[in-house]
Amino acid sequence: MTEATARQSTMSHEEWEVRKDLAAAYRLVALYDWEDLVFTHLSARVPGPEHHFLINPYGMLFDEITASSLVKVDRDGEIVDPGATNRVNPAGFTIHSAVHMAREEAGAVLHLHAPDGVAVSAHKDGLLPLSQTAMLCLDHIAFHDYEGVALNLDERERLIHDLGDKNMMLLRNHGTLTVGRDVGEAFTYMYFLMKAAEIQVRTLGQGEPYLPSQQAIDTTSEQSKQLGMASKLTWPALLRKLERIGSDYAT
């Protein structure tokens, strides 16, 4: 019996499935070149009444993370299952615990420092309606002002107040955050947000942009209400991508 198989045998099938999805998300963040060494963090709620959630083992690169290596913590930041390192990023706990505690439906929370996302978070007007991708995101976005490295637990109340019921957030001068009912939904939101940010950075580098009509913006905004449903198609396809390249994320 391998170590991963032994670990799997100690937990529910539901938890193991969430672990595999979250580990896949870490590998995909690395694959899309959105990681920041061992920093930033993705989390997922463990099914059950205990309010436990999974987060990366602090000190591991995202392309090293597996289902069995993830650390399980409770809502107070106490480690329930040590995973690979028996430690988590304190700033990660502050941000993720805030959202998981405030939003019962928040099955997964993703936070990145990818350059294009940080650049757009620092733009005075945030995300602009420069592309179809951006217009699909606009109604989902909230903003939170930078307060320093997120080590102060008092910031949690302000962060969740600013997030409200939105599923995407620009953390000003800091990065991006998405919330989903599951890992696949949160990742799909992040993909759209990061793609929109990438397009904006490229577009503004060309000079004065061409903006669509307000009618087009409003129409796309109405169409964006079903954006989260795209994960039903995108997430299985992304898992197949990992399998084709021989990723060991599910161990």
Task: Describe the overall structure.
The chain has an eight-stranded mixed β-sheet, sandwiched between helices. The model has no long low-confidence stretch (mean pLDDT about 90). A hairpin with a 5-residue loop joins strand 3 (about 70-75) and strand 4. Helix 3 packs across helix 6 (about 155-165), helix 4 packs across helix 7 (about 185-205) and helix 7 crosses helix 9 (about 230-245). The protein has about 250 residues and is α+β, with helices and mostly antiparallel strands. It contains nine helices and eight strands.
Main-sheet strand order equals: 4-3-2-1-5-8-7-6
Low-confidence runs of at least 5 consecutive residues? none
Choose one word for the global shape. globular
Number of strands: 8
Radius of gyration: 18 Å
Structure class:
alpha+beta
Distance between the termini: 12 Å
The H-and-E topology, N to C, reads as HHEEEEHEHHEHEEHHH
Name the beta content range.
5-15%
Task: List the main descriptive attributes of the protein structure presented here.
42% helix, alpha+beta, 8-stranded mixed beta sheet, 9 helices, globular, 251 residues, 13% strand
Compact description:
By secondary structure, this protein is of the alpha+beta class. It has helices at residues 3-8, 13-31, 90-102, 115-121, 132-137, 155-163, 183-204, 214-223, 231-244, and strands at 41-45, 53-55, 71-73, 79-81, 108-112, 141-144, 168-171, 175-180.
